Amino acid sequence: ASVSAKVPEEDPISFDTKFRPKEIDLAIYQALARFGINFDLAVFNFDFNYSISMNSATSTSYRTGYHQLQLNVAYLF
């Protein structure tokens, strides 16, 4: 993929990048994993689970979307 950039001489920090979307190798996806357990104890229902999300914008960069720890307690009648 080729990217053209112009750097003004008076301000070396700022730059202007122009490219077409097809010129950059994008690999956008999101993955989610969830682990948990659910059990009943007499008239109570307990549910514990953990979720983690990973996402990526390119084929070489990854980041964590979120972590979630959840506890549900229910009374069965």
Any overview of this molecule?
This protein has 77 residues and is mainly beta. It has one domain (4-75). Helices cover 0% and strands 65% of the residues. It has no helices and five strands. The strands form two sheets. A three-stranded antiparallel β-sheet has the order 3-4-5, with no helix packed on it. Strands 1-2 form a two-stranded antiparallel ribbon. A hairpin with a 4-residue loop joins strand 4 and strand 5 (63-75). It is rod-shaped. The termini are far apart. The model has no long low-confidence stretch (mean pLDDT 80).
Q: What is the structure about, briefly put?
A:
The protein contains no helices and five strands.
In N-to-C order, the SSE pattern is: EEEEE
Form type? rod-shaped
Q: Residue ranges: pLDDT <50 for 5 or more in a row? A: none
Structural class: mainly beta
What composes the largest sheet? 3 strands, antiparallel
Radius of gyration: 24 Å
Q: State the strand order across the main sheet.
A: 3-4-5
Summed up, the domain count is 1
Number of strands: 5
Distance between the termini: 62 Å
> What share of the residues lie within helices?
under 10%
Output mean pLDDT. Answer: 80
User: What percent strand?
Assistant: over 45%
Question: Tally the helices: what do you get?
Answer: 0
What would the keywords be for this entry?
single chain, 77 residues, mainly beta, three-stranded antiparallel beta sheet
